[in-house]
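Tutorial, part two.
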Amino acid sequence: MNRKKLNPDTSPRAAFGERLRRLRDERGWTQDDLAARTGYSATHISAVETDRRPPTPQFAASADRAFGTGDQLERQGRAVRQTAVLEGFQEYVEHEVGAAEIRLFELGIIPGLLQTPEYAAAIAGGAVSRGAITGPQAEERLALLARRHASIQRTPAPLIFAVLDESCIRRPVGGPRVMQAQFGRLLEFAELPNTVFQIAPYDLGERRAFDLPVNLLTLSSRAPVAYAESAQQGRLERETRLVQPMLTAYHQLQAEALSQAASVAMIREFRKGTP
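Running the prediction step on this input gives:
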């Protein structure tokens, strides 16, 4: 039987799933056995174990009762719910690792895959100073981003299309030195043979296709996946009938945005103006 390999260091959710599976294996129980003891389906248990579904407080409590572990899983479940990663994003990242094509649109800040470590640290530090996340949550975000950066350094390399709203490059983050390095990173990205880089200028006005950040993937199977988020919520979408209109809107955005040559020229001008 093929079992998904679990890495508990990936996220608190993955750590919970790995522990749930280990406790079950130690007792020689199947997922059906645990299902009968908790009142949840074997499919639900499989989804929690493989980090496809977060553990609810009710599920964690029922698992503690089944295993006789007191409130250990309940407490671990609380740590899962305190993660800084929005629901749906971890699953998106799992798809991103093997995607053939990655399409990004971002507002206000440089997309994570294009950020320098210093720029990413400044963004995370700002969130900590505002009280939006804790120090450990900031470290979690940065560790996940580092793994995402490493995952796209593969052969064959994925095609990466990035459209940045002009606000992304106008917003100063981390000070002039950080922005100088970040602009350099964007120029390097644009020179890669597997990338397309564009700026959506302010004068697009109402013709800009999206009002929220969007991530679109084409998997190796050619199946499309979309992930979009607001400040508090993320959603992964895999139904083709729902993803296809987003792909169409993305292509329309690319047609309206500046060419790569004009986008690179804009970055160079901004870089000149950064002390």
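The chain has a mean pLDDT of 89. In part three we will examine how such features are distributed along the chain.
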